[in-house]
Amino acid sequence: MKDSEFLRTKVPMTKAEVRAVSIDKLQLKGKANLLDVGAGTGSVSIQAAIEFPNLQVTSIEKNPDAIEIMTRNMTQFHTDNISLITANAPQGIPDERFDAIFVGGSGSNLKEIIEECLSRLKSGGTLVLNFILIENAMAAYQVLANQDVDELEMTQVDVSKWHALGKGHYFKHHNPSIILSATKG
């Protein structure tokens, strides 16, 4: 899905190319449910819900501005298979088991969120986390390296988009994103 399809505010949004890789790493084909922690504008939840209409998506977000724009995006895209929970993570993560979990935002609770997500993830389920800060990605990697996970992988997605400048063109650089993925053992 194009970024331009989403309603936007100052709330951060996972960009199209990063969403595509993250959703691919979630391995959602045939899965029943997805948890999106730190859902922001809802771009990952909404794209997953549209691409996999039988998937039940549970999104958790604490920021009132993000909740407002995500609600508007859910209405715009008619995504009836998304439940939005207003809460802090990890405390507000529902007491359910999930086939896949995406973490797009963690605030200062990264270790606790990862541990809670792993406790809620079904065996063989996938966990995908996105970061722009190397330090946060490395902290998450260290937590996961000491857990019962397989296929622990870190990928950097670096996107530049074509733009006109005067009579010429250049590639305008976006922030690189780090995608950390693992499968629960």
TrEMBL record:
UniProt keyword S-adenosyl-L-methionine present: yes
Keywords carried by this UniProt record: Cobalamin biosynthesis, Methyltransferase, S-adenosyl-L-methionine, Transferase
Residues in Methyltransferase domain copies: 30-133
InterPro entries found in the cross-reference section: Cbl_synth_MTase_CbiT, Cobalamin_biosynth_MTase, Methyltranfer_dom, SAM-dependent_MTases_sf
Highest taxon above the source species: Bacteria
Pfam (any one): Methyltransf_31
Pathway involvement of the protein, from the record: Cofactor biosynthesis; adenosylcobalamin biosynthesis
Keyword Translocase: no
Name used for this protein in its record: Cobalt-precorrin-6Y C(15)-methyltransferase
Lineage per the UniProt record: Bacteria, Bacillati, Bacillota, Bacilli, Lactobacillales
